Amino acid sequence: MTEKIDEKKVTPRSQDFAAWYNELIIRAELADYSPVRGCIVFRPDGFAIWENLRDELDRRIKQTGARNAYFPLFIPQSFLQKEAEHVEGFAPEVAVVTHAGGKELEEPLIIRPTSETIIHYMFAQWIHSHRDLPLMINQWCNVVRWEMRTRPFLRTSEFLWQEGHTAHVTRDEAERETLTMLEVYRSFVEDYLAVPLIAGRKSAAERFPGAEETYAIESLMPDGRALQCGTSHYLGQNFARAFEIRFLDENNELQHPHQTSWGVSTRLLGAIVMSHGDDQGLRLPPSVASMQVVVVPIWRKPGEAERVLSTSREVAGKLAEAGLRVTHDEREGVTPGFKFNDWEMRGIPLRIEIGPRDVAAGEVVLARRDIAGPAGKSKAPLAEVAPRVESILEQIQLNLYRQAKAAADSNTRQFDDYAKLCAQMAEEGSGGFAEVYWCGNPACETKIREETRATCRAIPLNQHQEGGPCIACGQPAIERAFFARAY
Question: Whole-structure pTM over 0.85, yes or no?
Answer without folding.
Answer: yes
